[in-house]
Amino acid sequence: MSTFRDRFAQISLAIALGAIMTIEADATVMVPTGPNGTLTAYRVVNAPVTWDTARMQAEQLSFLGSPGHLVVIDSLNESDFLTMNLASGDRWIGLTDATSTSALDGRSFSGAAEFGNTSGLLLPLRDVVPGASQRGQGFVWVTGESFNFPRWNLGEPNAQAGEDGVILHNDGWSDSPAGSSLGQANTSVPSYIVEFDTNLSMTMGSLGPLCGTLS
Are the beta carbons of 199 and 41 closer than 8 angstroms? Predict the structure, then answer.
């Protein structure tokens, strides 16, 4: 019977060898993408829910004692890893420009609503917070971190009919309605990615990320 660490090593070796793979639903993968190389854990949850429901459910999960939240993507390395290994199909991420309060749990957001269709505005430079004349102005991460790494698809965000949630596609991001709990349409996406900031560190060696399921 394989142990948790055995499963970690098996999947880690495949990734280290350059394999593009899809981590199974409810498995958790840990990679050193946190501050100073600390381990960040990611989990794909397959559940067709709205953005706001995914946001609330993610915050009810924990891993190794660390609370979860919808994933925050703030670097090219992190974006590439998620796209190659965790982003097959459409998945909610933790970006929003909501200004209302969620009817689900009373959560309020610090975003600033996009003023109409912003798809014609310029994208900001990488690692620069979008300004008032740039695409994505008003979006914030659910953790409160600055939004300074945009990966919008062409013509996004376009704020059609109120779109306060963000979807990670295989080739970039788009905004989409976040659900009736935020006063918008109930658009469901097949899954969402949860991030856990573990603040753990370890020598990764040549095996790359560690992944598996804790029970």
Answer: no
